[in-house]
Automatic annotation (TrEMBL):
The keyword Transit peptide does not apply. Belongs to the TRAP transporter small permease family. The chain crosses the membrane at residues 21-39, 51-70, 91-113, 154-175. It is a multi-pass membrane protein. It comes from Sulfitobacter sediminilitoris. InterPro entries: DctQ (IPR055348), TRAP_DctQ (IPR007387). GO terms for molecular function: transmembrane transporter activity. GO terms for cellular component: plasma membrane. This is TRAP transporter small permease protein. Keywords: Cell inner membrane, Cell membrane, Membrane, Transmembrane, Transmembrane helix, Transport.
Length: 189
């Protein structure tokens, strides 16, 4: 059983580390978009797409970089008490708090899947089966949701990015949970 846990931890950590190292350069994409927005507003006609594209890039940067942040332990912590605790006590505390985070991520994934199904034109009550049907070709896409801005991009791509990011974050939280369990058993991770 320990071998399976270690394999899961290695696999999830490797995927999130590689993706996180790529996504962290998204800040430069965001800066480029905002720079172009400033230049186009000053010297040319203002671009309609820049503000909303900057928001989309920021969502991708934040959501896809979240698992890497959790893995590196760079998320915000209250070190007032936590910093002085023993490794075993930290593992217990992390084990409890990661369970709350896993529940929260499950709720977020459900909401993201429902929202994505809606953006693809589905208004019924089975969004998971609809998205699975879309992927397998069994379901037809309806009238797709577009933004209400002047640019009017389709909303489903950023919603799919959110689903991927939340699932990766859930997998990273499970990896952290398994690391805490191994630490509590006295094993090195």
């Amino acid at each position: 059983m320990t071998g399976i846990l270690r394999g899961f931890i290695r696999g999830v950590d490797a995927v999130n580390q590689r993706l996180g190292r790529v996504v962290m350069y998204g800040i430069f994409v965001l800066m480029g978009i905002l720079l172009w927005s400033s230049v186009s507003k000053t010297f040319f006609l203002p671009s309609l797409w820049t503000l909303e594209m900057a928001q989309f890039v920021m969502v991708g940067y934040y959501v896809l970089g979240g698992p890497y942040s959790i893995q590196m332990g760079s998320n915000v912590r209250m070190d007032l008490l936590y910093g002085g605790w023993s490794d075993r006590r930290k593992a217990w505390f992390d084990l409890i708090t990661v369970c709350f985070l896993i529940f929260y991520l499950c709720v977020l994934i459900y909401g993201a899947v429902s929202s994505t199904a809606y953006s693809l034109g589905y208004w019924k009550d089975a969004p998971f089966s609809f998205l699975f049907g879309v992927l397998t070709g069994a379901e037809e896409i309806g009238r797709m949701e577009q933004s209400s801005s002047a640019w009017r991009p389709y909303m489903w791509p950023i919603k799919v990015v959110m689903i991927v990011g939340f699932v990766l974050m859930l997998l990273q939280c499970l990896s952290e949970l398994f690391k805490d369990l191994l630490r509590l058993r006295g094993e090195t991770v």
